[in-house]
Amino acid sequence: MTTSAPATRPSPLARPVRRVQVVPLPDSRPPVLPPDEVFATRAGGFLQESLALDFRHLSDLMDARQPFTRSELPDPTPVVTALAQAVVEVMAGLRPPPQVSRWTSPDVYAALCRRSAVALRRGPTSRRPAVVRRVRVQEPADGVVEAAVVVIHQDRVRALALRLVGLDRRWVISEMSVG
Predict the structure, then answer these.
(1) How many CB atoms lie within 10 A of CB 92?
(2) Fold classification of 70-178 (topology level)
(3) 108: enclosing H helix or E strand
(4) Which of 28-32, 46-50, 112-116 has the highest mean pLDDT?
(5) Which ranges in the chain belong to alpha helices (H)?
(6) Alpha-carbon distance 160 to 177, whole Å?
């Protein structure tokens, strides 16, 4: 009978070592431009040539934010009622602010976005919608409406003062005060 010696396994340290190949990094810095090229205006007038869109033919639409007379605008009372409820829901965080961006000026929209962000940080509250109780509308000038609105939201009575102007054949909130 022959006895064989146990097979020996190579030690993990005895395996061939893989060599790490060092590759130089490519230069990631932007190219250096001469000063006259930095401040030169481009011939096309576009800021980004890959998206060279020509909006000159839309200039009529961009300048369309023109005031309209009262006869060309819809009845303001239902518009004020719907906007007041939407504004209170945005301030409570129940409605996203972009839903009212079309009917607000940039300043009012920015204020609504800030109040919505604060409401969302506060955490969840009652999901009951706001109820508009009373709307009073006055027209101090042609194409201008001032409204006082009483709203009940989360067992709290709030007063809203809104100033709407007629732009683009619709009412747009230009000023807002919440009490």
Answers:
(1) 21
(2) Nuclear Transport Factor 2; Chain: A, (3.10.450)
(3) helix 106-122
(4) 112-116
(5) 35-38, 59-62, 76-92, 106-122
(6) 6
Q: Return the pLDDT at 48.
A: 47
- Best CA proximity match to 164, nearest among 77, 58, 63: 77
57: amino acid identity, one letter: H
Give the number of residues written for the chain. Answer: 179
Query: Rounded to two decimals, what is the model's pTM?
Result: 0.61
Q: Distance (Å, rounded) from C-alpha 88 to C-alpha 76?
A: 18
Q: Classify 46 as helix, strand or coil.
A: coil
Q: Looking at the predicted structure, is the pLDDT value of residue 114 above 50? A: yes
Provide the percentage of residues in the chain whose pLDDT is more than 70.
73
Which DSSP state fits 53?
A: -
